[in-house]
Inverse folding.
């Protein structure tokens, strides 16, 4: 391929040593090339982020050696096999780092992660080893394209840890693949567009077509340890690329900056298509000072590689299936409650009345006791006798006035015969009781139930 000084994507980058005062062991590169494709010139952009391992300048040397080796081998290729070229270049860089470390005992353990993107025209190809990530921002949504090669990521995939536990786990900085080992690493070519693909589907995503307005972000874990994905998306959507990089680095530094922070972005020119519902997922935090000032706020754990001991595992945390079953249970309960309410409303709005004819009373005499009151009063209150006062005598008129409940027009009129109560029967003072005999003449039965007074 031929080098070019005119990249066909808009790019920006930034790096910072963090707040702990250690050397910046990150290294990145953005390179432009052209290649021939069916007789036409095809622009190619190669972007890399490498995070050095080893300390005491060894990590810095390893990261730079990885970038230089990969760039040189890509430049020597014809550009026809992006994945094969990147895989061979990364493995060759790993051997160069290992050989360089073998020359001096002080360099033992040096190594580097590597995240590499190859954009040929509008087609995206990626290779990576370690935990330096790559994201795609499209339509207001951010998607991690890579998968971390770490102990905690393997624990999350196995269901041993959830993501919240993984962030705080003692093995959070233990990586499982890196450049510089005795054997070259297995280079990962899985490209996750939805995050739900199988390994085979993720591999088939290579050559993914980019759209106008799409933005790629590559970074070291000094950013992703301290800034969440939705915060990264909100910042990228709210300001130009260079300002967004400064903002994100400032946020990581303000939150401790325990590691080096490196960010590379590349954007496809043109206006992005309108996507319904696309919006930043959170507010943009205020701008912060980028340069390290003041005391160290937090101390990061050193990176380690190699075999992982079985210690440090925690009990299996409830996964997303538990929350799914809980949500389904709640929905079923709400549906049953709604059905019960609808049935209740229907029953009460349309009651079914069953009418049973009730025979009228027979003509046999029925004895009813009435209370007799004097003619001048409908209701006579009880007589209260005050001390030393004799009760007044009852009125001379003892002709009874009978008070009865009015009868319905469709019921037989009673024939009442009044007979004075025999002498000596106890009665209330001032009240004379009579016994009346009522004879009812039956009529034809009528519908419904009727209660007679």
């Amino acid at each position: 391929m031929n080098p070019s000084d005119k990249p066909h994507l808009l790019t920006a980058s930034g790096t910072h040593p963090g707040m702990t005062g250690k050397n910046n062991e990150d290294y990145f590169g953005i390179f432009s090339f052209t290649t021939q494709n069916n007789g036409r010139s095809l622009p190619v952009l190669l972007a890399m982020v490498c995070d050095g391992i080893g300390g005491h300048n060894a990590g810095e040397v390893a990261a730079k050696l990885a970038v230089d080796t990969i760039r040189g081998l890509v430049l020597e290729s014809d550009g026809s096999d992006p994945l094969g070229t990147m895989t061979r270049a990364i493995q060759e860089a790993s051997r160069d780092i290992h050989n360089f470390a073998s020359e001096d005992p002080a360099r033992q353990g040096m190594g580097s992660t590597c995240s590499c993107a190859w954009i040929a025209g509008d087609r995206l190809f990626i290779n990576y080893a370690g935990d330096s990530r790559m994201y795609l921002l499209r339509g207001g949504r951010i998607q991690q394209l890579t998968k971390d090669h770490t102990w905690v990521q393997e624990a999350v995939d196995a269901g041993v840890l959830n993501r919240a536990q993984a962030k705080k786990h003692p093995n959070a900085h233990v990586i499982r693949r890196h450049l510089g080992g005795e054997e070259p690493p297995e280079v990962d070519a899985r490209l996750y567009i939805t995050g739900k693909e199988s390994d085979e589907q993720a591999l088939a995503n290579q050559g993914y077509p980019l759209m106008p307005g799409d933005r790629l972000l590559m970074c070291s874990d000094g950013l992703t340890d301290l800034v969440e994905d939705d915060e990264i998306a909100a910042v990228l959507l709210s300001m130009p690329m260079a300002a967004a990089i400064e903002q994100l680095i400032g946020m990581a530094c303000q939150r401790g900056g325990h590691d080096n922070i490196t960010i590379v972005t590349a954007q496809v020119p043109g206006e992005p298509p309108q996507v319904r519902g696309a919006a930043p997922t959170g507010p943009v935090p205020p701008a912060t000072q980028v340069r390290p000032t003041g005391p160290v706020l937090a101390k990061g754990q050193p990176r380690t590689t190699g075999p992982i001991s079985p210690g440090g595992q925690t009990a299996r945390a409830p996964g997303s299936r538990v929350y799914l079953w809980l949500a389904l249970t709640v929905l079923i309960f709400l549906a049953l409650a709604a059905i019960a309410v609808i049935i209740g409303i229907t029953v009460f709005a349309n009651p079914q009345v069953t009418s049973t004819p009730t025979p009228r009373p027979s003509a046999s005499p029925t004895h009813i006791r009435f209370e007799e009151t004097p003619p001048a009063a409908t209701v006579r209150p009880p007589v209260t006798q005050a001390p030393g006062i004799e009760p007044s005598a009852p009125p001379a008129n003892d002709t009874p006035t009978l008070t009865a409940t009015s009868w319905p027009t469709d019921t037989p009129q009673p024939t009442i015969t009044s007979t004075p109560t025999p002498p000596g029967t106890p009665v209330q003072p001032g009240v004379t009781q009579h016994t009346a005999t009522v004879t009812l003449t039956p009529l034809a039965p009528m519908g419904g139930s009727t209660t007679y007074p």
Remarks:
- The radius of gyration is 47 Å.
- The chain is about 25% helix and 20% strand.
